# Entry
Amino acid sequence: MDVSQYLEIFIEEAKEHLQSLNENLLVLEKEPENKDTINEIFRSAHSLKGMAGTMGYKRMQHLTHDMENVFQEVRSDKMKVSSELVDGLFRGLDALQEYLDNIINTQDEGTNDNQDLIDLFQKELERGLNGGGGGEAPAAASDEAAPAAAEGAAAAQAAPEAKAGSALDNLVLNDTDKSVIAKAVGEGMTAYALNVEIQDTCVLKAARAFLVFKAIEPLGEVIKSIPDAQAIEDEKFDFDFSMVVITKASEEDLKKAVMNVSEMKDVIIKKLEAEAPAAEAAKTEDKGSAPAAGGVAAAKA
# Structure
């Protein structure tokens, strides 16, 4: 799959996010405590970061990642919005617009790393983490909220895991799949079934899936995907897909490779045992019953 086919979609989406950033920064300049505005800026930066990463625009991804990190601290009340931060964000917006203009004109983001802006955002982040602004919720409120939050998190985690587990439990392997797995296991490799879940806020989920396949490629061979490659390319799937991989890599290596792709929500991995194809199983069964038939014939004789 050629990721460049998504360029037009990326450009349109990026324009919308930059417009949203501009409008919300103008509001933030006047209302630095406005939570809705802060959350909107965070969401736009987060989405733009993910899209840029998918398309391979690393400089744009890096800059929006640092902007997102700062706003994570702001929305968590660990730091306050200062006039210096707002000025830096407007400069960051100009830099992002420059990247997008380059992409529109040349399909390349350019070579400007905007290191001065990245340094500025890192400095603001350190200021926030070192108590340079913001406040903390009362301890009693935090203590009361903790059990409920933990319970909610556990329930939220259980639902997708149950869904992924079901997808892997219901995985159907044909005789060709079983033969390939048996041969690979005989050669010292391991077969794993993976269910990969993409965040439901992802805009370019087919491109994300493509990057997952590319991440797995150096570690082993994907012998099956559900849905198939064409359906994934055409985005004819929800926000999860499954694959069967034969590899010498560890389960942890596979998980790390998948989760290093941006906008991944989770991956469930299950080891597959070598299983004889139906035809071979039938032959084995026939051979096993042959002596008994011979014994009956001999008794009759």
